[in-house]
Amino acid sequence: MVVSAVVAFGLTDRYAAGGPLAFDDVFRGDDVEQRIYGTILQTREPTTASAIANVADCDPKTARKYLGWFSELGIVTRHDGHPATYERNDAYLEWRRINQLAADHSIEDLQQRVRELSSRIEAYEDTYGAPTPAGSHIDGAAHR
Predict the structure, then answer these.
(1) Whole-angstrom distance, CA of residue 89 vs CA of residue 2
(2) In the chain, is it the N or the C terminus that has fewer CB atoms within a 10 Å radius of its CB?
(3) 89-121 burial, b for 16+ CB within 10 Å, e for fewer?
(4) DSSP label at 134?
């Protein structure tokens, strides 16, 4: 998790220079918005604003303010309850990735890459006799 945060937040120079950063140090120096954003990206289940604030090292009221804004932008999904919980919106992250790919590559390049990957998938299916690893047979035994 720390390594992904190191890469995601461009901290590779600090990481390489001094070895692994303590988790508490990963967000040091970032503004509160970035710390909350980074924290929500790492969540895997609905999480309270207080828990997010704890990791992001900010006041829960501040976390709720930014989480409300992120909810309006579609970055997070807010689940009503007592207390309300928030989780990252994977559809937003997929859209963002697709948008970035479209900005960085031509349609032709993207179509070519899809063809290449489709061919690789077909080759794997032919080699292993199954559309998924779970259904493949290696040395006569089912892969589990």
Answers:
(1) 21
(2) C
(3) beeeeeeeeeeeeeeeeeeeeeeeeeeeeeeee
(4) G
Whether residues 130 and 69 share a domain: the answer is no
| Same domain, residue pair 35 and 66 | yes
pTM here is 0.60
Nearest to 76 by CA among 103, 48, 97: 48
3 state DSSP class of 56: helix
CB 52 within 8 A of CB 40: yes
Do 109 and 52 share a structural domain?
no
Helix (H/G/I), strand (E/B), else coil: 126:
helix
Tens of pLDDT along 41-55?
Answer: 999 999 999 999 999
Instruction: Say if residues 11 and 26 touch (Cβ distance below 8 Å).
Output: yes
| Mean model confidence pLDDT for the chain | 82
Task: Check whether 7 has a pLDDT greater than 60.
Answer: no
Q: Domain limits at 9?
A: 2-88
Q: Residues 52-63: what's their mean pLDDT?
A: 96
The reply to whether 14 and 83 lie within a common domain is yes
Burial, 67: exposed, middle or buried (Cβ in 10 Å; 0-12, 13-18, 19+)? buried
